[in-house]
Amino acid sequence: MSSPKITAEEVRQVARLAYLELPRTEPEERLIPAVELTDLSERIGAILGYVEELSRVELDGVPETSHGVPLPPLLRADEAKTELDREDALAGAPQRVGDSFAVPKVIE
Fold first, then answer.
1. For residue range 71-84, what is the model confidence (pLDDT) as tens digits?
2. What is the DSSP string of 8-28?
3. Position 47 in a domain
4. 46 close to 6: Cβ distance less than 8 angstroms
5. How many domains does the chain have?
6. Buried b (16+ CB within 10 A) or exposed e, 63-91
7. Which domain holds residue 14?
């Protein structure tokens, strides 16, 4: 598998677009060092090679999924239950006003 060739200048351009480097007008020391750019270009090329390899995988007849393993449903069954007693609900309230929770005013 040969990795797509990504140049150091392409890595630098992506870094600028992602604001990982300051604009060209900044001093050279603010830029990603050349040796690091070379390493990044090789690593990004390898990643793109793997993506290219995955795009060649035959998927006909494979059902779509949102996860690699089956997961149980996250929602519980909707069941009717007895209502909560008002006094029990308000028992832990820091402040009450009659039969309601007292909350601080948020809009002036």
1. 887 888 888 888 88
2. HHHHHHHHHHTTSS--TTS-G
3. yes
4. no
5. 1
6. eeeeeeeeeeeeeeeeeeeeeeeeeeeee
7. 8-55
